[in-house]
Design a protein that fits this description.
Elements lengths: L1 H22 L3 E4 L14 H12 L2 E4 L15 E9 L5 E8 L5 E4 L3 E3 L4 H19 L26 H4 L1 E7 L2 E5 L5 E7 L5 E5 L4 E7 L2 E8 L2 E10 L1
Parallel strand pairs: 1-2, 1-3, 7-13
Antiparallel strand pairs: 3-4, 4-5, 4-6, 7-8, 8-9, 9-10, 10-11, 11-12, 12-13
Helix pairs in contact: 2-3
Length: 238
């Protein structure tokens, strides 16, 4: 009995220590490509990473974004996130790793696992499950107060308005793990895939790898084009 109590105490201690480390940082830098994949934002993993970090409470930025003035300069006031793949024959396993400015690992999740065979579903599912652990820790920044200059937090340029075809109603037809969005033609415009968050889907078409996110009651499609972030409003009938 004493052995189990000791193990439990050790686990609680390690969890509290990890939480304290994460709570010391407000800014997180997200790469645009992970080493185990070829291509920027492959399977939308980088988009998923930034979205979840932001929802948890961090100020997350892609490595190629312009940082706000209060975040610039000091590299050591930021964490640098990475996603690594663990070897497995029967499942896709991904872990989330946080490193400091000296490339020292300060926190690492347990592996999120997916047994789906299709990579376009398995990778996002495994990553979402890994993020589930971070939601359970209850991150809350407890470092020095930060004066946020919203004007300086502009990221890559966004489109000023959605194209006409994006503003038309799209009808959601169920498919495995998500929906296909059909226009009035009818034509499949986009496929969106469920995540652990009801207001967030990963999105894919012949030319787009991105995300569909609900913001202020509206569905917004976000993706990169020519290294610039594009945002388009979608009218979706589920």
């Amino acid at each position: 009995m004493k052995k189990y109590i000791l193990i439990l105490s050790l686990f609680i201690s390690l969890a509290a220590s990890a939480q304290k480390v994460l709570n010391d940082y407000k800014y997180v830098i997200v790469p645009v490509r992970y080493d185990f994949l070829q291509g920027d934002n492959k399977f939308r993993l980088n988009t998923i990473t930034k979205f979840n970090l932001t929802k948890i409470g961090f100020l997350a930025f892609y490595e190629n974004e312009n940082l706000p003035q209060e975040a610039g300069g000091d590299r050591c006031n930021k964490l640098f996130v990475d996603v690594e793949k663990e070897n497995s024959l029967l499942a896709t396993k991904l872990v989330i790793v946080f490193k400091d400015c000296n490339n020292k690992v300060v926190y690492k999740t347990e592996a999120g696992k997916s047994t789906v065979k299709e990579y376009e579903v398995a990778y996002p599912e495994a990553l979402e499950k890994a993020f589930g652990q971070l939601y359970n820790y209850g991150y809350k920044y407890k470092g020095p107060a930060i004066a946020t200059n919203t004007a300086s937090m502009s990221t890559a340029p966004k489109s000023s308005a959605a194209p006409e075809d994006a503003a038309e109603m799209l009808f959601a037809q169920p498919i495995p793990n998500g929906y296909q969005l059909i226009d009035k033609t009818p034509k499949v415009v986009l496929k969106i895939f469920k995540t652990s968050q009801p207001d967030y889907f990963t999105a894919q078409s012949e030319t787009i790898n991105g995300a569909v996110i609900k913001k202020n009651g509206e569905w917004i499609l976000e993706y990169y084009k020519d290294e610039k972030l594009v945002s388009e409003k979608l009218l979706i009938k589920f």
